[in-house]
Amino acid sequence: MDFYVMRSTGRAIGLLALATLSVPGSALAGKPRSPTPTHSSTIALTGKDKLLVVVNQEANSLSVIQVRGKRGSDVSTKLAEIPVGLEPRCVAVDAKGKAAWVTNAVSGTVSLVALTGKTPFSVLAEIPVGTEPRGCALTPNGTRLFVANMTSGTVSVIDTAARSVVRTVAVGGSPFAVAITNDNDKKDDDETVFVTQFFSELIAGKNQLADDGRQGVVHAFPSGTLTPIKKITLSPLANSGFAGDRSKFCNLTTDPDPANEFFCPDNSIADPTNPTIMADPQGVFPNQLASGVIRGDALFLPNIGAAPEPPVKFNVNVQALVGVVDVGGQAERADKHVNLNAEVKAESDPPMGVVTLAKLFGNDLVAIDADKAGALFLIVSRGGNFVFKAALADGKVTLGSPVVRFQTGNLPNGVVISQDGKRAYVSNEVNLSITAIDLAGNRVLARDIPSSTPPHPGTFAHAVLVGKLAFSTALGVPNEGLRAMAVRDIVPLEDRGKQSNSAWSSCSSCHPDGLTDNVTWSFADGPRQTLPLNSFFAKDSPLDQRIANWSAVRGSVTDFNNNSIAVQGGTGFADAAAKANIYNHGITQGASDALDLQTLWVQTVRTLNEPQPADVSAGRTVFGAQCASCHGGAKWTKSQVLYGDDPAFTADPLATTPGTPRDPGVISPGAGQIQGYSVTENAAGTIVVASIDFLNDVGTFNPASPFEIRGAGGKIGQGALGVIGFNTPSLLGVAFNAPYLHDGSAETLDDVFAKHTLGGSTIAGTLSAADAGDLKTFLNSIDGTTEPFTSDADVFRDTLAGG
């Protein structure tokens, strides 16, 4: 079933009184005030569903909107917008509707906001917690607030009466979403707190590149004693419901022979069309666990499943998974895990040229809610701008037939269902708005009820916001004219198919918040760990840009338009004339508004804050002596686009007739080597010739590894790049980016020290134990506030500029 509502104009939209709704009564005596188990979200309703509260991440505020009027009528009256901390991510409301608690990611605080009383709609307290707080949830009776601190690896426990942190639970990793049970009594010390790890972890004995190589992680602990902490793992799906063509990885089915036959399903088959070779079932593991909801004795966990083995193609790359944990047994229910995309596959293809939600796949599942009975579920597809309506069948989340989707505003990131199950509301991150849904009538009432005011077209802030949308949508945006369009007037569904095939994926699928999914993918150059984009540009100068990718094969954000086409199955964000100039180290600006604004947004991607030790001076000294030449600079990497001319090639270097490098520009001595080169005349009239290598061999490439094989592109199945070395990765926010190295083979910094050569030995063999420890402490502290060092590339650039 397909529901489509015409675009809004961005004005305040009043909801029509479509039905008289019953309003739930107050909690029964002796019962907890929260009627259902609680969970973290960007949006919440007060106990009687009259008021809606929502965080505005892009406006640093909390909005309060009345959504029910007299006799249960639908209204949309914005009562207040309250400034809170920087980058609010979660809101929790006490069941009486008196106060809201907001986590502020950048500030590292929780804001307590009064909703009633003598000073309604004001901030009563700012409570420091850990670094990068994300999910938050109150215990059923509201006496404790649990906050997941993503980069601290901790959970803060706030006494809501005292308004202070009373305990801290160390869970490690990347805690993100919180869900708390409700056993229907007046006590809050006998519940179970579940906290997801955003990133999956490597399964012992597996390789980072394997579709079954990683597992999801959830921690559970008692709300009272806080110990013991039970670790629950979520297994990969052996069969995602989709199959890949492995014919390029078998000696008998391709020419030339592949580098090895590790990925060949059956090396005795000579027919490349044999289903065993051509349609090999692909697995998928859970990753990016951003939300969870408890109903009955089950915790439901939507996530962005990753399948990194070759071939790299949109329908076997990322999946829309929902994992299930038995709440009482505190163990996974692997038999209940599902891939929602396997159900979408059965839908009929929509007619060409029709603007429709039909057969959109479930990319970037980031939020979930359910009605009180656990019979109806809503699951948010962020890049698809829609919400799935789902049910349970034998304990599994199922979409059913026909699949029901509700169109939302741009980049939805949270959903809440009313207590009577008749209404739902979705928060739209980029549009700074709310979508209201009539669940009984299966229709969208209003797509963009304003929660805050987006920046005006023509402003820098507007351009950045639209760039975020262009980067994060799985659908598309117009190629041109975006700078003059109000963000709510951009309807990605109308440009469906540009970013990916049928909304399979977005750039954010692998770069959440512009950073990294911490997955090693089998790309066209070989196995490659996803690089965070916070270091693509220096924050003090957009002219200071790193060369892209581990093998320096790309030179700009624009180049990645080809990724939308070749990997994600889309048509890209440029017309035919511009596409002719989009190739590796081709044009960097001017291909289209959409690509230019994506570049602008990438320039603003921030580094997450890290916990700061009292003294890192000893480690800074070691770093300056041993590491800064390659890992210095404003981007914490010497990699810089220092070419004297862009584009660096006059034609596509991968075409039948390779392009001729310009001079000065990029020269390619062979095997993928990229070298900055310049000829100039200094002030004294002396000709200066200088060069700098950007690919360096640090002993981390093993050509004999069966995983060192290309997983896509024209040389799929052949040996990977890496013999000469790799483009220096940035160490900005390095503590958050494990596993490390190009192939993810180093799970920890200690593993890096054992593999990475430094002169004639490894880091571990070169440094004393004390120096290595000091260095590790300093590395883990590096974030956007850390003062950088000078790199070799800085010296190279400045020497040429000054003579």
Describe the structure concisely for a colleague:
By secondary structure, this protein is α+β, with helices and mostly antiparallel strands.
Explain this structure to me?
This protein is an alpha+beta fold. Among the domains are: 38-242 and 282-453, YVTN repeat-like/Quinoprotein amine dehydrogenase (Methylamine Dehydrogenase, Chain H, 7 Propeller); 610-639 and 728-803, Orthogonal Bundle (Cytochrome Bc1 Complex, Chain D, domain 2), CATH 1.10.760. The chain has 12 helices and 45 strands. Strands 1, 14, 15, 16, 17 and 18 form a 6-stranded antiparallel β-sheet that branches. Strands 21, 22, 23, 24 and 25 form a 5-stranded antiparallel β-sheet that branches. Strands 26, 27, 28, 29 and 30 form a 5-stranded antiparallel β-sheet that branches. α3 packs across α6 (593-604). The longest helix has 13 residues, at 460-472. It is globular and about 80 Å long. The termini are far apart.
Q: What is the radius of gyration?
A: 26 Å
Number of strand elements: 45
- CATH H-level homologous superfamily name of the domain at 38-242 and 282-453: YVTN repeat-like/Quinoprotein amine dehydrogenase
**Mean pLDDT metric:** 90
Poorly predicted spans: 1-30, 644-648, 660-679
CATH architecture name of the domain at 38-242 and 282-453: 7 Propeller
Q: Quick one: overall form? A: globular
Enter the CATH topology name of the domain at 38-242 and 282-453: Methylamine Dehydrogenase, Chain H
Q: Beta-strand percentage? A: 25-35%
Query: How much helix, percentage-wise, in residues?
Result: 10-25%
Biggest sheet layout: 6 strands, antiparallel
